[in-house]
Amino acid sequence: MTILGIDRHLDDTDLARTLAVDVRAGLTATPKTLPPKYFYDARGSQLFEQITRVPEYYPTRAERAILTAHADEIALLAGADTLVELGSGSSEKTHLLLGGMRTAGALRRYVPVDVSESALNGAVKELDADYPELDIHGVVADIEHHLHLLPRRGRRLVAFLGGTIGNLFPSERHRFLADVRASLRPGDTLVLGTDLVKDPRRLVAAYDDAAGITAEFNRNVLHVINRSLGADFLPETFDHVATWDATNEWIEMRLRAGSDHVVRIAELGVTVEFANGEEIRTEISAKFRPDTVASELALAGFAVRSWWTDPDGDFALTLATP
Ligand code: AVJ
Fold first, then answer.
1. What is the mean pLDDT of residues 53-81?
2. Which of 213, 238, 295, 321 stands 20 to 30 A from 135 (CA)?
3. What's the rounded Cα separation, in Å, for the pair 105 and 29?
4. Can you spell out the DSSP letters for 187-212?
């Protein structure tokens, strides 16, 4: 493995500034909201790893099953020598894709893209011994803003896995897919992971596990705001709420205040009033139908080449080309 270095399009000051802007906007709005991207500090990332192992949270296992069965086929169809991974989460999935690309004979380069440099370093370390032939070119970037800055070398397979696209609202999703499309050239390929609509009881359980890990993950965003912006939230006084919105076909996570109270956010010079029972929306996680995945990709200028689900039909991977 050769580490080619890291491109930084974002630093801690940028992150602190966007957090401040987003928190001010979200907590002074009615109803109150917070963006899901701030769950993932070191503790939040650890809690998410734990979520992927609770019995109720099927998406990670389902996506892994698809990759285990079809990574070689995906690699052959893509014919890529470069894997670009947007939000380079778990190295295990990366491993399956890189393995497929190696079997296909073309593997040269891995480009993990993440807002967190420590997440990038983690991803690189995990792959160290296994892929001596690999050049690694890390990119610290916000995938909602910096897609045009991605390295252009090689024939690329761009992976956006985990169902994270479901965290975007439909209009944001369209813009994101159109931006990905604009950043690709002929010969490049997108592989997109999407969670699928299913029995609402299973969906709600996946976002409200009995062990309470998702609840703690949800409250973690308040710990992040306390630490980063000098706020005095009492996270444990907020209840975790997960509901299925049948109209929009998304899971909504919220935090519900347990009393009338006021929170001070020192670094914003802001106080926020909560009524007992008032909720902050912290995440949507949209679920898809096979035909909506295809039509949204088509609307963004992609042609769908192939798609796969796990044996239970819970999750889908779609291969699309510009
Ligand atoms: C990592 C964004 C795909 O939406 O299912 C897990 C995050 N939130 N449990 C998802 C999450 C609550 C997860 N993604």
1. 98
2. 321
3. 52
4. T-EEEEEEEB---HHHHHHHTS-TT-
CA of residue 38 to ligand 1 center, whole Å: 12
Nearest to 239, CA basis, from 223, 252, 258, 220: 258
HSE of 59, CA atoms in CB hemisphere, 13 A:
26
Nearest by Cα to 243 from 197, 206, 275: 206
Per-chain mean pLDDT for the chain = 95
ipTM of the complex: 0.99
Taking the CA of residue 217 as reference, the ligand 1 atom at the shortest distance is 12
Measured in degrees and rounded to the nearest 5, phi and psi for residue 48 equal -60, -40
From the CB of 89, is ligand 1 less than 6 Å away? no
Distance between CA atoms of residues 252 and 52, nearest Å = 18
Contacts of 5 (CB under 8 A, 6+ apart): 137, 138
Q: Per mean pLDDT, which range of 49-58, 67-76, 88-97 is the poorest?
A: 88-97
What tens digit of pLDDT does each residue of 140-169 get?
999 999 999 999 999 999 999 999 999 999
Which candidate, 78, 125, 126, 66, places its Cα nearest to that of 102? Answer: 78
Angle at 39 between CA 37 and CA 41, to 5 degrees: 105
Q: What amino acid is encoded at 272 in this protein?
A: V
Q: Which class for 215: exposed (0-12), middle (13-18), buried (19 or more C-beta within 10 A)? A: buried
Pick from 283, 287, 288 the residue to mutate for probing ligand 1's pocket: most ligand atoms within 8 Å of its CB.
Answer: 283
Strand partners, 134: none
Biggest distance spanned by C-alpha atoms of the chain? 62
Ligand 1 centre distance from Cα of residue 283 (Å): 8
Q: How big, in percent rounded to 5, are the helix, strand and coil portions of the chain?
A: 40, 30, 30
pTM (two decimals) = 0.96
**Ligand 1 touching residue 59 (CB < 6 A):** yes
